[in-house]
Amino acid sequence: MNIAVVRTDKLGDFITALPTCKVLKNYDKNNKIYVCVSSMNAPLARECDFIDGVITDDGCNVFKFSKKLKKFKIDASVTLFSNTRVAFAQFLAGIKIRIAPATKIAQIFYNKRIKQRRSEVKMAEFEYNLELTKILFPDIDTNYEKPLLRFDDADVVYQKFCADNRIKKDIIAFHVGFGGSSDANWSLDEYEILIREVLHVNKYQVVLTFGPDEKMLQSQMQKRLKDTSAIFYLSNEGIVDFAKLIVNFKLFVSTSTGTYHLASLVGTATMTFFADSLFASAARWRAVGDEALQKHYMLPQDEANRKIILKSVKKELSTF
């Protein structure tokens, strides 16, 4: 059976779709698993050995999109998050089994729907995604091996990075930027306190990572930490190269954004900060990796409790 898993939004959202792809492949190795993703996520999808093909959604009109889908001769689609354009394109492509959550007007174009009420957060986002596979295969096993993504050459990438930057210690990385559905983060002042604590203990090398559109943020942090041994890494080589690098980091510290999901995907320990609300909580956005490697903090809005959490995080980093 040719099965398309559709998730055309941002990096973290796409990563929550990967367990779905994995269990569908595990169910029957003869299944051909295709993913329909945004162009930015296509390179990462191609690195997954349980994905047989990648359909990129470049934002073309619905008729061109449907023709693209039709070429892959899809028997069934599992759409994890939909909009009217994505739904209608699948209908026009003649996909016989079209599965999706029963939400929004787009649901009229699917013939297999399930009410999930994700806003109630009874499970994590990736677990809601996995539930949809049971419509196609009621006896499917939704457990999967972790980490989901491994690289044969990750150690080579890491050793080169260490040699280029004269790094001789294990690395704790801080990613101070945020985007996507992330609703809370420390201020740069607060991050500086945490980073200086790790530097003071002097057990790890601190690396600050930045996306290609965060040059200004990189410059700000360089000025703040110019008297330290911190290294500032701007990721210009693409998401796959970045994933290969962070595989070997001892800890990845960030808010709940795409890079957090990427770190957990490849098996790196994470310390992550979430908004103190159900919608943006760890309960909903828990990562797809080993839960034992995930440390979650909810950031309150009131200043007094925020200082308490900051003190707790600082202590944990000092003893990591």
Separation, N- and C-terminal Cα atoms: 47 Å
Whole-number tally of structural domains: 2
By CATH, the topology of the largest domain is: Rossmann fold
Coarse shape: globular
Instruction: Give the topology string: H per helix, E per strand.
Output: EHHEHEHEHEEHHEHEHEHEHEHEH
The beta-strand count equals 12
Query: β content, as a range?
Result: 15-25%
Could you walk me through the main structural features you see in this protein, from its secondary elements to its overall organization?
This protein is of the alpha/beta class. It folds into 2 domains: about 1-135, Rossmann fold, CATH 3.40.50.2000; about 155-320, 3-Layer(aba) Sandwich (Rossmann fold), CATH 3.40.50. The protein has helices spanning about 10-15, 20-25, 40-45, 60-70, 85-90, 125-135, 155-165, 190-200, 215-225, 240-245, 260-265, 280-285, 305-320; strands at about 1-5, 30-40, 55, 75-80, 95-100, 110-115, 170-175, 205-210, 230-235, 250-255, 270-275, 295-300. The strands form 2 sheets. A 6-stranded parallel sheet has the order 3-2-1-4-5-6, sandwiched between helices. Helix 11 (about 260-265) links the parallel strand 10 (about 250-255) and strand 11 (about 270-275). The radius of gyration is 21 Å and the shape is globular.
Q: What's a concise summary of this model?
A:
With 320 residues, the protein is α/β, with parallel strands linked by helices. The protein contains 13 helices and twelve strands.
List key phrases describing it:
Rossmann fold; 6-stranded parallel beta sheet; 13 helices
